[in-house]
């Protein structure tokens, strides 16, 4: 898995909250969808930029209960295998939408606290 930066995206978090009721679920699902199909919770948390696994424990449990991933224990580590389902393609489409929302957000005022623009005046 490559480094994933969209987990902290305001647009992705907002859309995830609306669709899934949890701000990190969409990023977790998108990362699983983009993986080779087998993810380790510790590695996944690290790739998403979370300090610990606590942010992904409930979503992984829910995805397991929904039959979207299967927990596999082996070699002293826990892994989750992505099961075939159309939700993974949908998660990637939602990710695109959330990232597009970020691009459409209003640009912040470019003035510094002294009232000057960030560009040399």
Provide a descriptive summary of the structure in words.
The protein is mostly helical and 121 residues long. It has one domain: Orthogonal Bundle (Arc Repressor Mutant, subunit A), CATH 1.10.10.10. Helix content is 49%, strand content 12%. It has helices at residues 10-20, 25-34, 41-48, 54-65, 87-104, and strands at residues 38-39, 69-74, 77-82. The chain has a three-stranded antiparallel beta sheet. Strand 2 and strand 3 form a beta hairpin. The radius of gyration is 17 Å and the shape is globular. The model is unreliable at 117-121 (pLDDT under 50). Keywords: Plasmid. It comes from Mycolicibacterium chubuense (strain NBB4). Residues 27-73 form the HTH marR-type domain.
Instruction: Indicate the structural class.
Output: mainly alpha
The average pLDDT is 85
Under the CATH scheme, which architecture would be assigned? Orthogonal Bundle
What is the radius of gyration?
17 Å
Q: Care to count the β-strands?
A: 3
List keywords for this structure.
mainly alpha; single chain; plasmid; HTH_MarR-typ; DNA-binding transcription factor activity; 3 strands; WH_DNA-bd_sf; Putative transcriptional regulator; 121 residues; Arc Repressor Mutant, subunit A; 5 helices; disordered C terminus
């Amino acid at each position: 898995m490559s480094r994933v930066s969209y987990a902290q995206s305001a647009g992705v978090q907002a859309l995830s909250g609306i669709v899934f009721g949890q701000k990190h679920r969409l990023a977790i699902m998108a990362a699983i969808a983009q993986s080779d199909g087998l993810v380790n919770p510790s590695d996944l948390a690290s790739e998403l930029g979370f300090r610990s696994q606590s942010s992904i424990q409930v979503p992984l449990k829910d995805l397991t209960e929904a039959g979207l991933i299967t927990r596999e224990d082996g070699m002293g580590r826990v892994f989750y295998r992505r099961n075939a389902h159309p939700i993974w393609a949908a998660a990637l489409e939602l990710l695109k939408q959330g990232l597009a929302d970020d691009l459409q957000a209003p640009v912040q005022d470019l003035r510094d606290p002294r009232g000057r623009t960030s560009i040399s005046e």
